[in-house]
Amino acid sequence: MGCLFCEIIERKRPAKIVYEDAQVMAFDDIHPQAPVHTLIIPKKHIATNLDLQEEDLGLVGHLFQIANRIASEKGIAENGFRLVMNCNRDSGQTVFHVHLHLLGGRLMHWPPG
Ligand code: 5GP
Ligand code: ZN
Questions:
Q1: Does residue 47 form part of some domain?
Q2: Which of 40, 74, 75, 102 has the fewest CB atoms within 10 Å, counting from its CB?
Q3: Is there a catalytic annotation at residue 99?
Q4: Model confidence, pTM
């Protein structure tokens, strides 16, 4: 079965790409839940957080580093932001290609919904 996010990486599906390098891509969420809602993904297809391997640890660090950079560029670093990675059914994961949600630009509530 095709993967939506692999299609974005391969430029087969349009997206508002905000960052790209050899390992990572970031693009704005199609249904934003906050004024800033960007998804940061590895170019390597990894279905869920549970599928991360030892060799992916550097990649995970890189996702967080790029999230910081985008948060600064979009002007939400100082006020604050939320990073979310959903995993499997109860979390609400709908796209099975690991992605870090960067959410900001409004006050976040806790506990999350
Ligand atoms: P999940 O629920 O799996 O953590 O998050 C998947 C996210 O991907 C959702 O916030 C959803 O709006 C977003 N999304 C789904 N399909 C597309 C798409 O084709 N393009 C973009 N930019 N975002 C998508
Ligand atoms: Zn994929």
A1: yes
A2: 75
A3: yes
A4: 0.98
